[in-house]
Amino acid sequence: MRPKSRVNAILTQVNRDNRGAQLVLSRTAPQMLTALLQKEVPEIAEQIIDIKDVARQPGLRAKVSVKTKDHRIDPVGACIGMRGTRIQAVQQELEGERVDIVVWSDDPVQYIISALEPADVDRIILDEDTKTADIIFATNDQLARAIGSQGQNVRLASELTGYRLNMLLEDEYNAQIENETKVYRDLFYNRLEVDEDLAQALVDIGFTTLEEVAYVPAETFYDIDGLDDEAIDAIQERAKEAVIADELQKQQTIKEPSAELLALEGMTPAWAFQLAARDIVTVDDLAEQAIFDLHDIDGLDEKTAGELIMKARETWFD
C-alpha cells in the first residue's frame, strides 16, 4: 500500500490523545465481510435478508449464514448473484478469500449440516448443554470433505455454529459407544451389586452416573422388567451410599496449605487453598512456579502473583 492509495476497510477503534485522533482500520474483522455483502447484495442492504453469523480465516476462507424475511427469496442465491457476480465481487475485494454462504437455522442440527457443506452428514448426536456435537459420516470421503483442507471447513463451521464438532466415521462412533457402555455397565455392576443384565438395563434407559441412579424419581425405573418398588428402593439406597463414600474419599484427599504458605506476606487463605489444590502446598512449591502457572487462581492478578512468587523465593537466600 502506498500513500494516497484507496482502500476499503472497517473502522474498529478510535484512539484519542492530545495530538488528535488515531483511526484503527481492519480488513480482517468479520464486520468487513458483512459490510461488503451489504454493498453488493441489495436484499441485505434493504434488510430483506439478515446476516446471522460470520466466521473467517482472513485471506483464505469464510462462512456466512443468512436468513430471509421473505420466503419467496432464496437467501443463498441472492447473495451469490447471477452467475456468481455478487459473491465474486466480494471475494475479489478480499484478495480471493473464498466465501461460503449457508442458510441459518434455529435448529442446531440443521444449522450444523448446512455449515458443513459440501459434505453429506450421516447423523448428528447433539449435546446442547455442553455445546458439542458428534458428527457421523458413512465414508472417509465425506469425512475428508467435512474437515476440509488443513481443517478449514470444520474449524469455520464450528466457529459459525458455536458448537465443538467431533468428526467420526460410523465404525469409530459405534466403537466409542460400545466402550462407553462398558464403562457405565461395569460401574453399576461393581458399585450397586447388581447382575450384568440389570447393569446393562440401567445403561439402556439412560443412566451414566451413580448420582442419577440415586436421586431420580422411582418411576424412572419402571421401564425395567422385573423391578418392583422394593428392588428400586434397594438400588437407590446402594447408589446413595456409593455417592456419599465417593464424596468422603474426595474430602480426605484434599490437600491443605502449609502454615508457612498461609503466613506468607500478601497471601490470603482463599489463594492458599486454591494453590494447595494444585499441589502447591509449601513456600518452596510456590517459589518454583512461574506467573503463568497461577493464572487460574480466582482473584489473583499477574502483578500480585509475581510478588508472591518473589516473596517465596526470598527463602532461597536466607
From TrEMBL:
One function term, GO molecular function aspect: RNA binding
GO BP, one annotated term: transcription antitermination
Pfam families, alphabetized: HHH_5 (PF14520), KH_NusA_1st (PF13184), KH_NusA_2nd (PF26594)
InterPro entries in alphabetical order: DNA_repair_Rad51/TF_NusA_a-hlx, KH_dom-like_a/b, KH_NusA_2nd, KH_sf_prok-type, TF_NusA_bacterial, TF_NusA_KH_1st, Tscrpt_termin_fac_NusA_C_rpt
Gene Ontology, cellular component aspect: cytosol
Domain Transcription factor NusA first KH: 27-104
Assigned keywords, A-Z: Cytoplasm, RNA-binding, Transcription, Transcription antitermination, Transcription regulation, Transcription termination
Start and end residues of each NusA-like second KH domain: 109-174
Record-linked NCBIfam families: nusA_Cterm_rpt
Protein name: N utilization substance protein A
Gene encoding the protein: nusA_3
